[in-house]
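Ticket reopened. Same input as before:
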Amino acid sequence: MVQDLSTLTAFIDGEPMRFNDGDTVLKFIDRHRGRGHVPTLCDAPQLEPYGACRVCSVEVAMQEDGPRRVVASCHTPLTAGMHVFTESPKIRKLRRNIVELVLTDHPLDCLTCEVSGNCELQTVAAKVGIRQVRYPSGANHLNRSKDRSHPYMTSELSKCINCSRCVRACDEVQGQHVLSMHGRGFNARIIKGLDQSFMDSTCVSCGACSQACPTSAISDVFFSKSIEATRKTRTVCTYCGVGCNLNVATKGSEVLSIQAPTDSEVNHSHTCLKGRYAFKFVKHPDRLRKPLIRYNGHFTEATWEEAYDYIAKNLQRIKEEHGGNAVGGISSARCTNEENYLMQKFIRVGFGTNNIDACARVCHSPTAWGMQKAFGTGAATNSIEDLEYTNCILITGANPTEGHPVTGSKIKQRVMKGVPLIVIDPREIELVPYAKHHLQLRPGTNVALLDMFAYYILEAGLIDQDFIKKRCENWEEFEQGLRNLNLDESERTHGVPREKVRAAAIEYASAKGAMAFHGLGVTEHSHGSKTVMTIADIAMMTGNIGRPGVGVLPLRGQNNVQGAADMGCQPHQGAGYLQVNDEANHKLYEEFYGAHMSNEIGWKIPQMYDAALAGKLKALWIMGEDVVQTDPNTEHVKSALNALEFLVVQELFMTPTAEFADVVLPAASFLEKSGTFTNGERRVQRVNAVIPPIPGTKSDGQIVCDIMQRMGIPQADYTPDGVLAEIARIVPFFKGATWENLTDQGTQWPIKEGGIGTEILHVDSFKRGLGKFHFFRFQESKEIEKHHDEFPFILTTGRILEHYNCGTMTRRTGNAQIVTEDLLAIHPDDAAKKGIESGDMVRIFSNRGEVNMKAKISTEVKPGILYTTFHFPENLVNMVTSSECDEDTMCPEYKVVAVDVEKVPASSMPKKQRMMEIA
Amino acid sequence: MAIQYISGKEPHAREKRLIFKNIDRVGFTPSIDSFLEDGGYEQLKVALKMEKSAIINEVKASGLRGRGGAGFPTGVKWGFIPPTNTKPVYIICNADESEPGTFKDRYILHQDPHQLLEGMIIACFAVNAKLGYIYIREEFPQAAIIVEKAIAEARAKGFLGKDILGSGFDCELYVHRGAGAYICGEETGLIESLEGKRPYPRIKPPYFPAALGLYMSPTIVNNVESLCHVKHIIQMGGAEYAKLGTPNNTGTRILCVSGDVQKPGYYEVEVGKVTMGEVIDVLCGGMKPGRKLKAIIPGGSSSKVLRADEKFKLKDGREIGIMDIPMDFDTMAACGSMAGSGGVIIMDDSRSMTWVINNLNNFYAHESCGQCTPCREGSLWMKKISDRIVSGEASPDDVDSLESVANQIEGKTICAFGEACSWPTQSFIKKFRDEMKGDCKPELVGEIVSDEGKVAAAGLAA
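Engineering reply: fixed in the latest deploy. New output:
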């Protein structure tokens, strides 16, 4: 027996056990005796200790026979040599008495309760052995009414046991502070917002409260805590680059509900309303269930065989008539690594062309490019987990609480605990009230602002000389550039007082460790890549690379946008980021694939459109992307698609893009297939099929594999683990990845032999050897130069929490009941000048086109700036966006659009709209 | 010139007026002029020239124990601020005087606010707190107005603000008003409230706000009366002050006597220098005519009740009766109760103990914050059961079940409210069980589980 009391040993009912520094008594018991050995009502693994239910009480003593004290084990720190008595008669009586009191005010309709069999109160009551309730009935809360106002969240507070778990989940997990306790003592009760319904409150429906509630007092319409399901499958969310793990409950082929696994390193019991609740699109009647072939302008249902034959015939013909370069492919960041890998292989091997691209083009291509130039690797240098260790957070051009909700919550939690936050954004995003610094610049002036930011770091002498000298190159040029800055001109350009920039720069540079997050507000500009490189400069000049709590972290938009690029869905780099026009690489690829391949860089997506219009691109294959709705300058995209001879689209739904196709292939959604997604922190995670593909559909990987085989391109039958094994052989940083060793938590690449992952990149040296500084002088966007005089407003676009991109999926879920349309945010001063009021229909027009939508007067934007989202096809905002793009990567400049705005007279509104107004 | 008091409100000869010197004094107003005429803020001037540690040492030497209820040594509390602390330090004056039977702080706030301010500024200086809050309960609206005016006056005279009296010490005091909750008198609940949150008392650790309190910074929470004593300790010196009262029970304290005596009211006496018998018979003029003493709650409603005919065995072997108990901290504790907040409630033989405990249980059920299950549910059940006993509808077994509810609250909650609400019930039942059972219906013995309860327990009720 271990008796060394000088170390971390304590006793559970007389038995000596090791404990960890910082353990509470309950954590210690849980670890050695299993969760539930000591019952509790108010404690939950995802929440801070609370100590209110007292059911977890134990007796403690410093000697085995010494005087004992009753303490709540959940918040009592363990000390060496402590004796813990978990089930003395006194404790058992105490627990029984408490639960008995709770039951005096709890309905006993257990058999018909949705959580029957999974109710923590029920379990605890059973465990402590309640046989009777001795107290005569009296005042109680059994008649509280149910809240059924919300498409997802429900409450039935007669079942509430006042444990405050929901309030704490709202505060500590989500950080929304919607739920609170009202009244005191026996009259204490949970309220939402200002004692409103879920629907009327500011609830963001993340469901953290529902998952935390030990009873059915707060739940959801899917009864996610019921034990009705026959199977629970762990998989990864398809909605954004955070990569939340999901536990999906199913019965047969029906998806019942989704919860977030408590042990997930990525999302620790948390996820947002998209991951948790927006899954009903899966069996939506609109799902495509049969291949469609366009004959004479009309779609006709076909069998898979017919469709494959038709495709193979046409592609073969075009290849023969116009050469392989007349074919192109657009892969999808929504699909798995395996599917993306096969897609690029299909195009490259099948047609001997590098005309393969993916939707990263329109979001984070400047990140991949810029970070490769600076560091050698186009991916996040650190992990989200590093937020726990950082001393300062810088967010440039990102709105994480809407776009990356779980990461947004984590940032908010850290900031609420005192970590200073700097937000560089033209809008007052949700995090701004929490931020110490908000640099509200004019859209399109990132480089001007960040140059000034870097200048003030230099001026304050806060650079890391040692790091610069040992780890970087080209510093002198960068320093010279900064020293030559014209601060007056910069200040005029970006519009933020220089003192504010200076204060923020000093905050960032003087922190022991600072993390820089960025999003599409950085990349989707004509100087997107340059901005990324300037952020990299700032991180390097302050030594914020290569250790915990620092780094440059792009908030990747789509669930697998990292993976799509990793897998080679880029025209200039093949699988594993090997340059296709490099001789050695070209040879490597040709040998690996045993085929003749092109060593010329292919077309990027915008170039494909131009090539189509020029008659050079004849056939295009689009896997899971709605380019008509999401790519800029819609009319231009449409005419390009019209100019194609042959278009194949793999889709879940008949999207505006699929409408242009010659063949539409019905694909399976993420819940219906297996594979891997790589999240924004390079974490390769297993996606597990939750249900089989709905009848008539196939996974995207299966489809590509089928067509490859049909066209005689050598490819083994499709299995996700088989393709992963092939990937591991060609992609250097996947070398050690196997289906098995990715484990439930996933592994961050580079993955070494044995499946060992990498949390932090560039620890001792950069991937490219030395980190390279780049200095760029601000240049005005051509969009502003050309059109600002005629169209004096700057429109910038973004996303909201409730909808995902063009909303193909979320508009077919309950989310559509929460947010029903896109709105245009306009500053009150501008609105007054234009005679616009909130709710008015307005016309936004640029030299490309126009779009009508409702206005929302808001100070989230400065005068002269307009903001809207792009989720609804009814408000096709890309009608007005421009074809201007990042010089290096051709990522479109969605964030700076010269427009004008005017109120639409009621008579010129569409008829349906008028009817609604009148009603 | 001798101090003149309002006719009929003159201090009793047995009193020793330090803190209440100016209460009911003819011509004395809450204004700073009155206070200055009386030598006000002179001790602040003295203190500002002292070493900070010397002030703390004087307070330690004085033996001053907190007058809010717990009787914790004030100087020791001040010493808990971590020496390595780099965060701001706060002082909070707990003016949430809400313990039933206690009514001393309100007189200080209403009539002599500058005495509090002077003591508090000295305390701030001693612990290097540049910011202090006076948390005044909602039910004292006038007090808040008076104290705010006093703060403005003190500021105008340079006793607050930047560089007080050229000492280089900056200090600001603010009044914060409660919203009507007893729990805000609990120091961590008060801190939460001051932070703008629901006043749920905090879990331990941290064990003392002096380590982590307001805004997670070291915070000293002292009662109004305790802070007033600081001024007098500076004036007299700690050692001299300690000569007042009895060893370990030094200084003076204000007793708030209510109930069935001829002259209820406030009496400032040297701690331990008067007995309970003297309080009743000498200070308060005895019991009401023809009435006999039945019971005493000696230190605010949360302290355990004492029976008139009880005998108490002291550590030194003496056995004393209730009238012989000296009014101090230690003897009162040895007698199984506590000196608490100084609220002495005298009950004569006309009082029904069942009614009294029911009255208290109603109060505590109303004031439980609702955070901890045993207290939230238990305090209500204590009320429900004692309601039933009072109405004569109870079984004698109900008295035992009432006791068992109290037993499972005590020591099983985050804050001391658990004890505060269960001690009265436990002690009343222990000492007046027969009387309470006598108020019940004997024929109901064995029937305490009502029919509905039985059904509910079987899991059959809707």
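Chain A has a mean pLDDT of 94. The domain at 782-918 of chain A is CATH 2.40.40.20 (Barwin-like endoglucanases). Please confirm and we'll close it.
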